[in-house]
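User: quick one, sequence for these C-alpha coordinates?
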Protein backbone atom coordinates (compact mmCIF):
# COMPACT_ATOMS: atom_id res chain seq x y z
CA UNK A 1 0.00 0.00 0.00
CA UNK A 2 1.31 3.45 -0.91
CA UNK A 3 2.15 5.83 1.88
CA UNK A 4 1.49 9.46 1.04
CA UNK A 5 3.56 12.00 2.93
CA UNK A 6 2.28 15.52 3.21
CA UNK A 7 4.30 18.58 4.13
CA UNK A 8 2.82 20.62 6.96
CA UNK A 9 3.73 24.23 7.66
CA UNK A 10 1.74 25.95 10.41
CA UNK A 11 0.25 29.11 8.90
CA UNK A 12 1.47 27.97 5.48
CA UNK A 13 0.15 28.64 2.01
CA UNK A 14 -0.88 25.62 -0.07
CA UNK A 15 -1.94 24.87 -3.64
CA UNK A 16 -4.47 22.04 -3.99
CA UNK A 17 -5.96 20.03 -6.84
CA UNK A 18 -9.10 18.06 -6.01
CA UNK A 19 -10.74 15.80 -8.61
CA UNK A 20 -14.16 14.19 -8.87
CA UNK A 21 -14.51 10.42 -8.92
CA UNK A 22 -14.05 9.07 -12.45
CA UNK A 23 -13.64 12.73 -13.52
CA UNK A 24 -17.40 13.14 -13.59
CA UNK A 25 -18.34 16.70 -14.73
CA UNK A 26 -20.47 17.66 -11.72
CA UNK A 27 -18.73 20.70 -10.22
CA UNK A 28 -19.93 23.44 -12.58
CA UNK A 29 -23.57 22.34 -12.51
CA UNK A 30 -25.95 24.53 -10.51
CA UNK A 31 -26.19 21.83 -7.85
CA UNK A 32 -22.44 21.21 -7.76
CA UNK A 33 -21.56 24.90 -7.42
CA UNK A 34 -24.12 25.44 -4.66
CA UNK A 35 -22.98 22.37 -2.73
CA UNK A 36 -19.31 23.32 -3.01
CA UNK A 37 -19.96 26.94 -1.99
CA UNK A 38 -21.94 25.82 1.06
CA UNK A 39 -19.38 23.17 2.02
CA UNK A 40 -16.49 25.65 1.78
CA UNK A 41 -18.34 28.26 3.84
CA UNK A 42 -19.47 25.76 6.47
CA UNK A 43 -15.94 24.45 6.99
CA UNK A 44 -14.32 27.91 6.83
CA UNK A 45 -16.67 29.04 9.59
CA UNK A 46 -15.72 26.08 11.76
CA UNK A 47 -12.01 25.87 10.90
CA UNK A 48 -10.94 29.17 9.26
CA UNK A 49 -8.56 29.50 6.35
CA UNK A 50 -8.10 32.17 3.69
CA UNK A 51 -9.29 31.08 0.25
CA UNK A 52 -6.75 33.09 -1.73
CA UNK A 53 -7.62 31.79 -5.23
CA UNK A 54 -9.85 29.19 -6.87
CA UNK A 55 -10.92 27.89 -10.25
CA UNK A 56 -13.75 25.44 -10.60
CA UNK A 57 -13.80 23.22 -13.69
CA UNK A 58 -16.39 20.54 -14.52
CA UNK A 59 -14.37 17.65 -13.04
CA UNK A 60 -11.75 19.25 -10.79
CA UNK A 61 -10.78 22.36 -8.93
CA UNK A 62 -7.57 24.15 -8.02
CA UNK A 63 -7.25 26.43 -5.06
CA UNK A 64 -4.73 28.26 -2.90
CA UNK A 65 -5.32 28.42 0.83
CA UNK A 66 -3.49 30.33 3.53
CA UNK A 67 -3.79 28.67 6.91
CA UNK A 68 -4.13 30.61 10.16
CA UNK A 69 -0.95 31.16 12.19
CA UNK A 70 0.01 27.99 14.03
CA UNK A 71 -2.51 25.86 12.11
CA UNK A 72 -1.53 23.16 9.63
CA UNK A 73 -4.77 21.16 9.63
CA UNK A 74 -5.77 21.26 5.99
CA UNK A 75 -6.43 17.46 5.71
CA UNK A 76 -9.33 17.64 8.17
CA UNK A 77 -10.75 20.61 6.29
CA UNK A 78 -10.61 18.79 2.93
CA UNK A 79 -12.14 15.65 4.40
CA UNK A 80 -15.00 17.65 5.88
CA UNK A 81 -15.52 19.73 2.70
CA UNK A 82 -15.80 16.53 0.66
CA UNK A 83 -18.19 15.03 3.20
CA UNK A 84 -20.40 18.15 3.35
CA UNK A 85 -20.46 18.39 -0.44
CA UNK A 86 -21.28 14.70 -0.89
CA UNK A 87 -24.15 14.74 1.59
CA UNK A 88 -25.72 17.88 0.10
CA UNK A 89 -25.12 16.77 -3.50
CA UNK A 90 -26.82 13.41 -3.01
CA UNK A 91 -29.69 14.95 -1.01
CA UNK A 92 -30.11 17.50 -3.80
CA UNK A 93 -30.63 14.76 -6.39
CA UNK A 94 -27.06 14.42 -7.66
CA UNK A 95 -25.93 10.98 -8.73
CA UNK A 96 -22.74 9.25 -7.74
CA UNK A 97 -20.49 7.11 -9.90
CA UNK A 98 -20.33 3.33 -9.64
CA UNK A 99 -18.87 2.37 -6.27
CA UNK A 100 -16.17 -0.31 -6.40
CA UNK A 101 -15.77 -3.04 -3.80
CA UNK A 102 -12.70 -1.22 -2.50
CA UNK A 103 -14.68 2.00 -2.02
CA UNK A 104 -17.57 0.12 -0.38
CA UNK A 105 -15.13 -1.50 2.04
CA UNK A 106 -13.92 1.98 3.06
CA UNK A 107 -17.47 3.43 3.20
CA UNK A 108 -16.57 5.84 0.36
CA UNK A 109 -19.10 7.29 -2.04
CA UNK A 110 -18.67 7.72 -5.81
CA UNK A 111 -18.30 11.51 -5.74
CA UNK A 112 -14.62 12.41 -5.13
CA UNK A 113 -11.29 10.81 -5.90
CA UNK A 114 -9.90 9.38 -2.69
CA UNK A 115 -6.95 11.72 -2.44
CA UNK A 116 -6.00 15.22 -3.53
CA UNK A 117 -2.77 16.84 -4.61
CA UNK A 118 -1.11 19.39 -2.36
CA UNK A 119 1.92 21.61 -2.83
CA UNK A 120 3.34 23.95 -0.21
CA UNK A 121 4.05 27.39 -1.66
CA UNK A 122 7.37 28.41 -0.21
CA UNK A 123 8.33 31.63 -1.99
CA UNK A 124 6.77 34.51 -3.92
CA UNK A 125 7.67 33.17 -7.37
CA UNK A 126 6.08 29.83 -6.53
CA UNK A 127 2.93 31.61 -5.35
CA UNK A 128 2.75 33.73 -8.52
CA UNK A 129 3.21 30.71 -10.83
CA UNK A 130 0.41 28.85 -9.08
CA UNK A 131 -1.89 31.90 -9.13
CA UNK A 132 -1.32 32.13 -12.89
CA UNK A 133 -1.86 28.39 -13.31
CA UNK A 134 -5.18 28.58 -11.49
CA UNK A 135 -6.46 31.54 -13.46
CA UNK A 136 -5.30 30.22 -16.84
CA UNK A 137 -6.67 26.71 -16.27
CA UNK A 138 -10.00 27.11 -18.10
CA UNK A 139 -8.08 28.40 -21.15
CA UNK A 140 -5.60 25.51 -20.85
CA UNK A 141 -8.49 23.05 -20.97
CA UNK A 142 -10.00 24.74 -24.03
CA UNK A 143 -13.14 25.93 -22.22
CA UNK A 144 -12.62 29.63 -23.05
CA UNK A 145 -10.12 31.83 -24.88
CA UNK A 146 -9.70 34.30 -22.00
CA UNK A 147 -9.65 33.76 -18.25
CA UNK A 148 -12.15 36.63 -17.93
CA UNK A 149 -14.70 34.50 -19.86
CA UNK A 150 -14.72 31.67 -17.30
CA UNK A 151 -17.28 32.50 -14.61
CA UNK A 152 -16.10 30.03 -11.93
CA UNK A 153 -12.84 31.64 -10.89
CA UNK A 154 -11.37 34.16 -8.48
CA UNK A 155 -9.90 35.90 -11.54
CA UNK A 156 -12.78 38.39 -11.60
CA UNK A 157 -12.17 39.48 -7.99
CA UNK A 158 -8.44 39.83 -8.70
CA UNK A 159 -9.11 42.01 -11.76
CA UNK A 160 -11.19 44.31 -9.53
CA UNK A 161 -8.32 44.34 -7.04
CA UNK A 162 -5.91 45.18 -9.92
CA UNK A 163 -3.82 42.04 -9.45
CA UNK A 164 -4.47 41.04 -13.09
CA UNK A 165 -5.38 43.16 -16.10
CA UNK A 166 -8.72 42.13 -17.61
CA UNK A 167 -7.15 40.83 -20.84
CA UNK A 168 -4.44 38.76 -19.09
CA UNK A 169 -3.98 35.28 -20.56
CA UNK A 170 -6.24 35.82 -23.59
CA UNK A 171 -5.39 33.80 -26.68
CA UNK A 172 -6.62 34.18 -30.23
CA UNK A 173 -5.26 31.04 -31.90
CA UNK A 174 -5.25 28.32 -29.27
CA UNK A 175 -3.85 28.13 -25.75
CA UNK A 176 -0.45 29.44 -24.80
CA UNK A 177 2.17 27.22 -23.30
CA UNK A 178 2.29 27.78 -19.56
CA UNK A 179 5.85 29.14 -19.87
CA UNK A 180 4.47 31.91 -22.14
CA UNK A 181 2.26 33.29 -19.35
CA UNK A 182 5.01 35.40 -17.83
CA UNK A 183 5.44 37.15 -21.17
CA UNK A 184 1.71 37.93 -21.50
CA UNK A 185 1.60 39.27 -17.93
CA UNK A 186 4.35 41.74 -18.85
CA UNK A 187 2.52 43.11 -21.92
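Assistant:
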Amino acid sequence: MSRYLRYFVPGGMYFFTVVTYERRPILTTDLGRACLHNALETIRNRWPFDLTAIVLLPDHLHTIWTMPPGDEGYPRRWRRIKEEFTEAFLQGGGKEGAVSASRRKRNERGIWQRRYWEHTLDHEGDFERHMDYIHYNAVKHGLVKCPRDWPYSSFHRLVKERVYPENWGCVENGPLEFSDLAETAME
